[in-house]
Design goal:
alpha+beta; 2 domains; four-stranded antiparallel β-sheet
Length: 280
């Protein structure tokens, strides 16, 4: 299919997108019928029916993606009459394309178009998750700096911070920091947190925040007192995770967060240079 045809079909399809008052994007089936090369409504309804079945098989609610509506059309006499129509979500349009006649160039385009759109959505979701993890790692760094400062101010030295943090890891994972580093194959000179999944970063951060708060409120002034507080908080967080079916020490290692951050920065620079940077 020629590039200019793909460009024209893309623009035409997106030009027919509408939004409800609630901001939900939709297309009308009678518009999509012609965009996909179907001259007869009844023939197109057969494709819509298959798409509805596919929607149901995928365990989505049909009514959420295929909403029956009426549409006023102009008659040759200058009058109007109402005809049946269907409001379709983007997902519904995708299912219709997948169940259409692939011999039609319009259907072939639509199938390719939605495959690309789905891939773009996957990339966006992946990048959002990666950005969330980078953000969680930075937040934990800041929280641990604050905890170190609290320990220094209230015990007279910050050499105890590493000991207290290690005791927290033992309580959270049921294993020592070194044992987890060995399990995840973390380089000796790198922090365990750089290879922890997002949920663990947030768990450690939450426990540390509670330790900071209670250490200040209760004016804990010794390493043993703050250690006990930190252990208790990490044990509480661990129990919450276990109750939800999440065992911290069983989670797989995550990609080096430094690499993730560099990749996100690089991709952001590319996207600023080219609107197609997302697909590069």
């Amino acid at each position: 299919m020629k590039t200019d045809l793909i460009h024209n079909l893309t623009e035409t399809f997106e030009a027919h997108a509408q939004e409800t008052e609630g901001g939900i994007e939709f297309w009308l089936a009678r518009d999509l019928q012609y965009l996909l090369g179907y001259a007869k409504w009844d023939n197109f309804l057969n494709v819509v029916s298959k798409a509805k079945t596919a929607c149901e098989v995928s365990e989505y609610t049909i009514a959420d993606h295929f909403a029956n509506v009426g549409k006023m059309v102009d008659l040759g006499s200058g009058s109007q009459r109402e005809v049946d129509d269907i409001m379709l979500t983007r997902y519904a349009c995708y299912l219709i394309a997948q169940n259409g006649d692939p011999r039609k160039s319009e259907i072939a385009f639509a199938q390719t178009y939605f495959a690309i759109q789905t891939r773009r959505a996957e990339l966006i979701e992946q990048r959002l998750l990666e950005a969330e993890r980078v953000s969680a790692r930075k937040k934990l760094t800041q929280t641990e700096k604050e905890l170190s400062q609290v320990i220094y101010e209230q015990t007279g030295g910050n050499k105890n911070f590493g000991i207290i943090r290690s005791k927290g890891d033992q309580a959270l994972f049921g294993k020592s920091t070194q044992a987890m580093k060995s399990q995840w194959k973390v380089p000796a000179n790198r922090p365990l947190a750089d290879f922890a999944p997002t949920i663990i970063l947030k768990a450690k951060d939450f426990a540390a925040e509670i330790t900071i708060f209670n250490s200040k409120e209760r004016r804990l002034s010794s390493e043993s007192a703050i250690s006990h507080e930190h252990i208790t908080n990490n044990e509480a967080v661990r129990n919450t995770l276990l109750e939800r079916g999440i065992r911290p020490e069983k989670l797989p290692v995550a990609e080096d967060v430094k690499k993730v951050e560099r990749r996100l920065t690089s991709e952001q620079k590319k996207s600023l240079k080219s609107p197609d940077g997302l697909d590069s």
